[in-house]
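PT: before anyone asks, these are the final sequences, not the draft ones from last week. 561 residues across everything. Please model them as a single complex and drop the result in this thread when it's through.
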Amino acid sequence: MTSGTIVGVNGNMLTVKFDGAVSQNEVGYALLDDMRLMSEIVRIRGDLADMQVFEDTSGLQIGDVLEFSGNMLSVELAPGLLTQIYDGLQNPLPRLAEQCGFFLQRGTYLDPIPRDTKWTFTPKTKIGDSVTAGEALGSTQEGIFEHYIMVPFSFAGKYTVASIADGGDFTVTETIATLKDEAGNTHDVAMLQRWPVKVPIEA
Amino acid sequence: MTKVRIVDTFFPVARGGTYCIPGPFGAGKTVLQQITSRNAGVDVVVIAACGERAGGVVETLREFPELTDPRTGKSLMDRTIIICNTSSMPVAAREASVYTAVTLASYYRQMGLDVLLLADSTSRWAQALREQSGRLEEIPGEEAFPAYLESVIAGFYERGGVVKLKDGSIGSVTIGGSVSPAGGNFDEPVTQATLKVVGAFHGLSRARSDARRYPAIDPLESWSKYPSVVPDDMIEKARELIRQGSDVGQMMKVVGEEGTTIEDFMLYLKSEYIDAVYLQQDAFDAIDSSTSGERQKYVFTLLAEILESHITITDKTEARRFFHQLTQTTKDMNRAEMDSSDFKELEAKLRQQLSEVS
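LR: through. Structure below.
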C-alpha cells in the first residue's frame, strides 16, 4: 500500500509527499491519533499530491502519515439504498448518530448498506449464459420495486456465468454468482458493487 | 409530469430532462420540492440537500417520512434516498455529495426506473468548489469561482437523461437543481452557467410569494424548452395576456383605476383571473394540489374559451364583481373531482355566468 507524509496543511487541503503510484481522485486516510481522516486527491504535481480532507483537519502536523487506499472515491450500490439518509460520503446518518450521539465524531465511517440484512435473490440467468456489464443476473424485491442485481459496471468485455445461486436469502456481500471472463479467470459477484462517483455509469 | 399546473402547462419538464429553480430564500422552494417529489411521474426520488441550513434539512427529514405516497398509500420515504450535507458539515464532503447523489440515481436508472434527483442547492456546491480552488491557489475566474465552473456544472447536468438499456427497457434521471443566487441577482456566474445547460427554468419570485401566490413561479420570467400538455399557440396567447395584464397592472399603480380604459382594465382582470384559478394551486387541497395532464388540457381549453369571449360589461365595478364570481366558481371547480357531478354542475354554472354578459 502506498503511503505518504504530510508536508503542508492549509485549511482542509493537505500537501502530501508520496512514494509509489497514486492516481487522481484516489482516496487516502490521514492518521491522527487513532482516527483515520478520509481525503481525496485533487491534484498531483511531481511527487506531491494535494488532497482535500472531508473532515476538520485541526491537529494534523507536518510529518504525519497518510495511507492511500488505491480506490477512487466510490459509493456502494446494492439493495437497501432506498429509505436511507446519508451524508455526502454515503455514511448512514441515523446509524452514525446511534453510535456517536448528536455530535458526529470525525473519522467515523460506517457501512452504507447494512451487512446483516438478508435479501431474497431470484436468478434470471443460468449457467453457461453469456453476460456483459449492467445485465441483470437476478433480482430481489426492494419495497415496491424489483431491484435487479446486475453484472458490476466495472466488468469490461464478455463473461460466462460459471455458477449462480438457486435463489434464497443472502446478505449483500455473499457471493451469488461466479463469472468467467474470456481469459478463463473467475470472478465472484455479490449483490453489492462499488462505483466511483465522479465517473458516469455507462453500461 | 408534476401535476402542478403552472409547471406542466406553462413550463414543463420532460422525463430525463434538467431544470433549474433559482429562488430567494423563503420563496417556497421546499414546498415545491415536496409536492414535486410526491406527484411527479417517477419511481425513485433522490434528494441531495447540499449546503443548506441545518434547520431546513431537519424540516425535510422530519416531514418526508410523514408524506404519503399517492401511488402506494405508504410513506413516500419508501422510494426516497436523502443525501444531506448541511452548511455546518465539512465543505469538501459537500463537493462529493452531489456526485454521490447522481451516482445513486444512475444506479436505479440502470434497472429501467425513472429517477428524479433534486439538488438543493447547487450554489452551495459551487461555493465548495470555489473554496477548494482557492486553497489550490488556482487563478480565479468571475467572482472568484474557478475558471472551470461552467464545465463542472455542465458535466453534472449531463449525467441526467434517458437511457435505453441492453434489455430494451428505458430508464431516466431527471435533474432539478435549485440555485440560491446571492441577493436574488440572476446575473451571477452559477445561475448563468446553469441556465446555459438546463432545459427549463422555474424562476421563483419573492413578490409572488409575498403576495401568497403559490407556487411562486414567475410566469413572465420562466421558460422551458420541453413540449407542454396543451398546444403551443394556446400557451403563447395566455402568456401574452398575462404579460399585458401585468403591464396594465403596473400602469394602474401610477395613474389609478380611473385613468385606465375599460379595455385595459378588462385585460388586467382577465390576467388576474387566470393567475388566480390556473397558475395558483392550493397545496393543501387533496384534489387541487395534483392536477392530471388530461384535466389540465380540459380546464385550460375551457379557460381559453372564456378569455377569448367578448365581454360586454362597461362598468368597472360591475366587471370586477363579475370576475370575482367567475374566480370563485372556477376555484370551486378546481376542488371538485373531475368526473363528479359537482364538476359538471360548476362547469355549467361557469358557462351560464359567462353567457349573461357576452
